[in-house]
Amino acid sequence: VTLLEQNPRWRLVPRGQAVNLRCILKNSQYPWMSWYQQDLQKQLQWLFTLRSPGDKEVKSLPGADYLATRVTDTELRLQVANMSQGRTLYCTCSAVGGRDERLFFGHGTKLSVL
Amino acid sequence: GDKVKQSPSALSLQEGTNSALRCNFSIAATTVQWFLQNPRGSLMNLFYLVPGTKENGRLKSAFDSKESYSTLHIRDAQLEDSGTYFCAAEPGGSAKLIFGEGTKLTVSS
Question: Which of A23, A67, A106, B12 is the Cys-Cys partner for A79 at CB 3.0 to 4.6 Å?
Fold first, then answer.
């Protein structure tokens, strides 16, 4: 059963352009939604966790700038800007504070720099 | 330094053999999770652990919070076990996991 739907699956991003990613939660039992990045060396790194509609956060990491927004209880967005190195962005969901705090991953969005 | 250190970084197994992967933590982890990433990039949750052990089919995992390590044992390795295994530690009370660098496992016939 798919818990998360991410789109697009892949995007070629011209240098200097921003790209918008979207993630839809299919199961409200896991409302804590997060973004993780995986770099070209396969290292996974937490970016953001946003629980409530209206939550926004920004972050700059080597190779990209990020703006994350929890739009609704089921939708999470990520804007990626100034990307200089390719990466894959994963949306995740979990149930924090309960007995089962497993983290579940979406299929990911692979970004390549043009 | 590395907060979550995985070993080995790569491993080759023959079908039917057994092996173990390990994670050492330099942070105070309250829970540990293990994931398998297949060659297409999909990440699957294998285990969520508080201190103790869990078993699921041919996989068994243990987490010792006092000694700050976790292990994943694979019994009777199969071709479909190939992929990259990640462990991740959670310092406590959040959805933020700190990942190791992964162990790339190749199972051959």
Answer: A67
Phi, psi of A31, deg, nearest 5: -80, -10
Cβ-contact A78, A18 below 8 angstroms:
no
Q: Which of B4, B32, B36, B96 to mutate: most A Cβ within 10 Å?
A: B96
Chain B CB contacts of A107 below 8 Å: 41-42
pLDDT tens figures, A59-93? 999 999 999 999 999 999 999 999 999 999 999 99
CB-CB under 8 Å, B48 with A101: yes
- DSSP letters, B43-67, are EEEEEEESSEEEEETTEEEEEETTT
Residue B35's nearest CA partner among B89, B79, B107 is B89
Gap between the Cα atoms of B17 and B75, Å rounded: 7
